[in-house]
Structure prediction request, 788 residues.
Amino acid sequence: MKALDRKLLRDLRHMHGQVVAVAIVVACGVASFVAVRSVYDSLLLTQEAYYRRYRFADVFASVKRAPESLAQRIASIPGVARVETRIVAEVTLAVPGLAEPATGRVVSVPAGREPALNRLHLAAGRGLEPGRADEVLVSQAFAEANGLAPGDTLSAILNGRWQRLRIVGIALSPEYVYEIGGSSNLFPDNRRFGVLWMDRAAAAAAFDLEGAFNDVALALAPGASQSDVIRRLDLLLDRYGGLGAYGREEQVSHRFLTEELKQGRASSVIVPAVFLGVAAFLLHIVLTRLVGTQRDQIAVLKAFGYRDATVGIHYLELALVAVAGGALAGTVLGVWAGRELMQVYALYYHFPLLEYVARPAVVAAAIAVTGGAAALGAFSAVRSVVRLPPAQAMQPEAPPRFRRVGLERLGLVRAASPMTRMTLRGLARRPLRSFISAFGIGLAVAILVLGRFFFDAVDFMADLQFRIAQRQDVTVMFQAPRPGRVRHELARMPGVLRVEPFRAVPVRLRNGYRSERTQLLGYQPDAELVRVMGRDLDVITLPPAGLVLTTQLADMLAVRPGDVLTVEVLEGTRPVRPVPVAATVDELIGVSAYMRLSALNALLREQDAVSGAYLAVDPAREQELNERLKGLPAVAGVGVRAAALQGFEQTLAESLGITTTVLVLFASAIAFAIVYNNARIALSERGRELATLRVLGFTRREVARTLLGEQALLTIAALPLGFALGHLSAVLVVRAVASDLFRIPVVVSTATYVFAAGVTVAAATVSGIIVRRRVQHLDLVAVLKARE
Prediction:
């Protein structure tokens, strides 16, 4: 074994605590990168394979009623490769074991053959038998949430008539990877919404659509222009009550999955970058101070003929050993965390097979980036090794010049003990080193704040959306717009305390070449159950005329209050009207547009019409109300606010909770690593000074207090710095992962700051105990040996 290799082993043995601390930071960075990036790759590969194998459509359109013969004209549109016409309808379901009515979406499938597009994967049971009007396949998420299996039955209102349906199979479709009830819903409620596939002939008979269809899906040929196909398709469907065609990017399930992939990709860069940046910073501190304590050894090595490059590589190897150990542990931990995270995604995104894949390229990239961070952190320290002349290195560093610190000049520490004054002087005479140490601890505090802030944000979003802005108990949606007097009928139902009607209209908003599909919601100006409210908690009173847009939608359309938008209504007679933007509201969830109910009715040139109503309900009579609503043919669906809140918490809180919990654990480990390294390095640098104090008669407790006092002051100074860095990091992360579907607010609670401070102080306490034991066992003879 070469001499430098033996020296490397001795250094590692002597610095094992610091090396392990660096390895922990590196392991956290590698694990976060491997876990998040491999999950992103796995989801992306699964999505692409699923879409390709089961022929997920490229273009979708709904229509009131179109003859089946129109399919040939649609197929002749340039760029169209396949056409699948079908029947799609919303129905009310009575599910065994479920008190309130559920909503089902009936989708027809061709008799005796596979659909040309959006094919089904049969997870259990068998397929439909042609001509059997009572047989259905149900979506897997709905079946699992309600404990349904092949052979079970449920009841549905099909076009105003109750019918008992028998479940013969459980199915999955690429059209419903993320299964929600419509574009106005953002979170799944699998107990109360499900998809039912029915034989085409049976569906046509049930909904009076023999020889006709009300929905169509298209696959495009390679190189086809989607916008041109959509334009031509709209022209064909317009006379039959077309509701506006749209591409795959606007399909609800695909849009949610795409946004999830975007956020996963951003997270796979941001979070590991933070950890690896801290690792590089920590390595820089460790090696820089190690060089300072080994000046005499460097001088001896150079005096014996070792080249500058050889000595520099020796110290770089020390850094790489710590990095290699951390990279190996991080890879194993990252693969495990990735598998666990995939199980969370499997709860909300439904694939026939969701296989976790950790590609070697991802692991190689993590190790390469880690090695680069180590090299960056060690570079300045190694450079100082190379530049250090032997004659200069033989001499110890010049001691700092004695001077009274600022507090002493002001006379504020006259009553302090000599040990306290020594502690203050030690910090004040090396301000840059003290700042770097405090900054390192501050980074640990910032990571802890960043990890916990997601819990605060989700809690704030849940409170704002489901407890402050929305206060209804039940939402009733009708099959078609109903006269406004229906509110009085609802008010007479058992248990109903208050009724607030609303109008919901699908629209396309245009501003020049920019356009967005959304729902235009009409509310009463005195609405109390559902209010338009931004993140500042100010309630927006809807103006007598004009639109109120969410700020996200206004930004997407590049408009502001005073501008005029073109509103294309996608139902009924499909009027096109210019409407001014009256105001914007900074909502956190969704992209919506609002109008006063009377103004929306006037825009549609209709009398008092409503799409549904929000109800406040007496809990004691809620069961009785549910039974009444189940039997109303005009009711298309019933939403329960408590269920929506549960779906929100399960989708966001739980999925973020797993990631955030891991992040907090990593941050806690990093906090300990940084604080311990600071204390351990300070002991290495000041060992001779502390031993001298012991020889001069100071007690072990007094000597330890001198060193640990510095670390305590650095930790206290680092807390506010870490709080500021944590808040800034939260702002940057929120901007990076922002999406059209929801915006995470930058809300950091006092509890989060207390938690971050508590973990950091605990890490400092444990580190102080370890360092104090070392101080008490200092070998005074070895430390005070003269340097020759």
Notes: Residues 421-461+643-788 form one domain. The mean pLDDT is 82.
